Amino acid sequence: MRILGIDPGYAIVGYGVIEYEGNKFKVIEYGAITTNAGEDMFERFKSIHDDLNDLIERTKPDFMAIEELFFNSNQKTAINVAQARGVLLLSALNHGVRIFEYTPLQVKQAVVGYGRAEKQQVQQLVKMLLNLEKVPKPDDTADALAIAVCHAHSYNPRRMAL
Questions:
Q1: pLDDT per residue over 39-53, tens digit each?
Q2: 54 classed as catalytic
Q3: Active site annotation includes 140
Q4: What is the residue-wise DSSP string for 45-104?
Q5: What is the pTM of this model?
Q6: Among 96-100, 147-151, 156-160, which stretch is predicted with the lowest mean pLDDT?
């Protein structure tokens, strides 16, 4: 199965596309969609939409695994991230990509085996599991790959069909 992992944002959207077959991972592509801070917010959303559409058309994922939002104290930031997340979800839906959501706790549990793991532990295990030379940067990219790995370890087609 081909999985697109997404760490949502509006300044940086981390993404990672992996294949998972027979308990083996293959990295297809990873990186970040970025927008400029001075740009109009609606233009930023359009840029995210266009770049994700290109990514989906190029990599043809079966699933998108996306992190559920964690609301911090900055309401304006949370609202903008939520709007960008909506753009990401709609793009996947328009391409017929099935969407699964995971909390940060679920991602850490699936990747490290411990839900309270530190960010660096998760990043190191992602590097090891995916046989990468170094931890992907920015952190949003490593997080997106962790979300994709989480889906690979969590997805059960028989259980999901119920």
A1: 999 999 999 999 999
A2: no
A3: yes
A4: HHHHHHHHHHHHHHH--SEEEEEPP---S-HHHHHHHHHHHHHHHHHHHHTT-EEEEE-H
A5: 0.93
A6: 156-160
